[in-house]
């Protein structure tokens, strides 16, 4: 049984006298216990809004949330806020993008870590402090006892993110949502944090929903990948298949725009034309069509449906690419099997 | 060989330096760091020296004042209507005022009253304002419908207070309580209430949209606890700075109200504002009588302003060097 089922989730922002903005437009996906799923897309495609909706963290005013989110059999969206607060931190936890602003600058690290323990485990005083030190040690912070008394500004960026991870996993949640956890960090620290997250997910059996715009992040970490565009899932695939033969032109374009170390010298990158535009929706055909090299008139007749194309591989495209093995990108090696990184 | 050992020593020293970490052993809180920076700032130091000196004078005034501030020492010799005054001399360093009272004694005791009014008025404004603003901010941050309504009620009341000129409030209070020092305190304090309330509420609202509040919410921390231990401590900085800066304006405003005659009418308890008002009539004959209280007011206000500005700078991360 799936741990998390997201069914036709939609989020619409309605401002005063403004055209409503559909940030998430019918997103569906499922996650199994212990699965590491990547949610990939460029800025503005609705991935952060999706994660906030899963946690029930969207503001109540000016936002309409539709669809269903089932976590372990309970409907998260219709849960009374008291029950939802009990679930946050103990069952569901989230790590945010910027570790500095996600920590309270005037409260020592220790008190921020023990806060979750106090809230959900009822731990107090010495017991909570010891457990917090254990947690910091677990996420690889050296000298944890002393770090507990320090303030966020005294920690490096990587340490701060580790502290946030410690706070998130303090009560052994079953689902951990990481919203671009490495964006604010430099590259070597990024790799360490990703390793830590992967290792935590494997050893604790925690499901990890990795939200990122960085294909390099999902390449090293995720079992399965959902690609989002303009608020919809456009391709669902295992990591291996996605990198070997992306079916949706957008995914193919994303992969084609990533520089590769083994590319010949002087070869130009192939960018995707234009940029995402929230005034284009999926009502009259494919939202990616204006930027697509493969589009035909068919693309603009009705919303394209998710099409199955092989084991666990779906795409939302009328004119998919790379359908037969051995085409353009089939030579692209599985980044993990190669031990490399597509970055 | 000496060159060689020098180099070895230098390497050792460098190794030691790199091994040492800042803020060793324990965490330094934002507050402690701020005070650390404050101690090194020349602006804060000069402000603190001025304020400290005046506070010291205010405390010891009754013991060091050479004469009773209300006692007429040389009633016959001073003839203000003929422009005959007793200037500074060995027995009276600042001379005598128009009624033959020792100006130095009056200045010293006046410092006590003027500072007291300033401090009490600021405390009053701070307490009431921060309480109103804190309740409003907490009500909104709790995120319930009744919270927003409570906030709307409090803030509309604050807006009403803001709309009434401080002088009008002072005149009304004086009409009710009669002219006295408490009248001036209440009047100046009330005028500051809306500023403190708006400041704390605004700062709390800003903090309640911060990332760490979202992060704490995502970990299931309850709203009241978030308000108490995350939002409130982060919102107090600007309010404390405002309080220091308000001390300066409060002293000036208290002097102004006293000058207009809302202060203590008892000639035995002088304050700088009232002394200024008295001296104004004899500006031609004895301008120095007006200068003493005026300069004292300016210097005190300057001291508090320097201190407040330095505090603002050291609390504001954008201005840190």
Automatic annotation (TrEMBL), chain A:
Location of the ABC transporter domain: 4-255
Any one Gene Ontology cellular component term annotated for this protein: plasma membrane
Entry's localization field: Cell membrane
Membrane-crossing residue ranges in chain numbering: none
GO biological process, one term: peptide transport
Taxonomy, superkingdom: Bacteria
Membrane topology per record: Peripheral membrane protein
Region of interest: Disordered: 321-343
Keyword tags: ATP-binding, Cell membrane, Membrane, Nucleotide-binding, Transport
One example GO MF annotation: ATP hydrolysis activity
Similarity-based family: Belongs to the ABC transporter superfamily.
Name the UniProt record assigns to this protein: ABC transporter ATP-binding protein
UniProtKB/TrEMBL annotation, chain B:
Residue span(s) of domain ABC transmembrane type-1: 111-308
Localization: Cell membrane
Membrane topology: Multi-pass membrane protein
Transmembrane regions: 44-65, 115-142, 154-177, 183-200, 239-262, 290-311
Pfam family, one: OppC_N
Family annotation (PROSITE patterns): ABC_TM1
Gene Ontology annotations of biological process type: transmembrane transport
Keywords: Cell membrane, Membrane, Transmembrane, Transmembrane helix, Transport
Main location group: membrane
Gene3D superfamilies, per the entry: MetI-like
GO cellular component: plasma membrane
Family indicated by similarity: Belongs to the binding-protein-dependent transport system permease family.
Matching PANTHER family: D,D-DIPEPTIDE TRANSPORT SYSTEM PERMEASE PROTEIN DDPC-RELATED, OLIGOPEPTIDE TRANSPORT SYSTEM PERMEASE PROTEIN APPC
Full protein name: ABC transporter permease
Organism field: Haloechinothrix aidingensis
